[in-house]
């Protein structure tokens, strides 16, 4: 990871407009030339670039800005803690045409092996829709006759841990519904 902020020019515009940090500090932080930062302050450079608030984005803290405003020799340090969160987001990946049949096959495998999973959970695990899972479960899918159960872990559509977590969640949901039904029938019997 670099020590450069996201959208450096827009960040520099915000820092020039909203802080008393020196041009050199801003230039070093945003990987720009000091004259470019001076041009931003004069309005010659970065015309039309909307200021990007690094505090709201989690790239800087107010304390860091205050400290750098008071000491012109101090360099601005990027707040790395918040930026690491973005790397955890799951990215959707392209599935080639040759592998697209793996999804319905994986859905039929999950339905056979874990019938307690809801259609929505299966859709999330496989990267399909709830409707597709429902159609396959009810044998109304357009290609039902050609489906063959195939483990989604082998097809690399999800991990074994994902399946385990989904099954545990489904079992908790079923237990909760069972308790609600027992409570309801008990209340009806007393009335």
What does it look like?
This protein is mainly α and 191 residues long. It has 2 domains: 8-88, no CATH class; 97-190, no CATH class. 52% of the residues lie in helices and 0% in strands. The chain has helices spanning 8-18, 23-30, 34-42, 62-70, 80-83, 102-113, 119-126, 130-137, 160-190. α2 (23-30) packs across α3 (34-42). The mean pLDDT is 86.
- Which percent bin holds the helix content? 40-55%
Domain count: the total is 2
Fraction of residues in β-strands: under 5%
Q: What is the ordering of alpha helices and beta strands? A: HHHHHHHHH
- First CA to last CA: what distance? 66 Å
Biggest β-sheet: count, sense, barrel? none
Estimated radius of gyration: 28 Å
* Low-pLDDT runs: none
Number of helices: 9
Gross geometry = elongated
Task: Give the class from helix and strand content and strand pairing.
Answer: mainly alpha
Integer average pLDDT = 86
Number of strands: 0
Which assembly state applies to the chains in this document?
Answer: single chain
